[in-house]
Amino acid sequence: MKPTHQDFLSGARDSLPILLGVVPFALICSVSAIGVGLSSTEAVGMSFIVFAGASQLAVLQLMGEGAVWIVMLLTAWVINLRFTMYSATLAPYLQDEPPHRKIPFTYILSDQAFGVTMSKFANEMPANPAWYYYGSASAVWLTWIISAIIGALLGTLVPA
After folding, report:
1. b/e per residue, 57-79, with b = 16+ CB within 10 A?
2. How many helices (H) and strands (E) does the chain have?
3. For the chain, percent helix, then strand, then coil, each to nearest 5?
4. Is residue 99 in some structural domain?
């Protein structure tokens, strides 16, 4: 299937309402990271690398309590196991995509993009379902990263 800008933009547009919930969550993750002693750069880096708010908050709490790294790693792993189910559900819609597109877009899988995408697929199949998902996931990821940057900057202003 050819990539279609229309499906990409439709996925991004359909994600707009849910992005209102992404903003405060990313802000809280970054402010919390600053609160446990990470620098602004480390806070944004964590949001960029992890891109999973629930596990990020759990790890930050464990970090604040002085937990060992293996406990933090296993906690994040268990919390993020749900992405295996999401990936398996989305796989048939992405099967015709080349690896150079599939691999980066597995990174931006989120609860929000999965929900928006599967809701759309249940009601109406886009001409190119993969690009619809890419649009939704990209909108969520970009909103998360921008909000994490803002949160890290605001976090430095919050007194300890």
Report:
1. bbbbebbeeeeeeeebeebbeeb
2. 8, 0
3. 80, 0, 20
4. yes
| Tokens (6 digits) for 32 | 């919390």
Do 152 and 34 form a contact (C-beta atoms < 8 A)? yes
pLDDT of residue 106: 85
What residue has token string 């559900």?
Answer: 89
* Eight-state DSSP code of residue 97: S
Q: In the chain, which ranges are E strands?
A: none
Residue with tokens 């993009």: 113
CB proximity list for 18: less than 8 A, separation 6 or greater: 112, 115, 116, 140
3 state DSSP class of 99: helix
Within-domain flag for 131:
yes
In a domain, 110, yes or no: yes
**Overall number of domains in the chain:** 1
Residue 36 located in a structural domain: yes
pLDDT tens for residues 100-158? 888 888 899 999 999 999 999 999 999 999 999 999 999 999 999 999 999 999 888 87
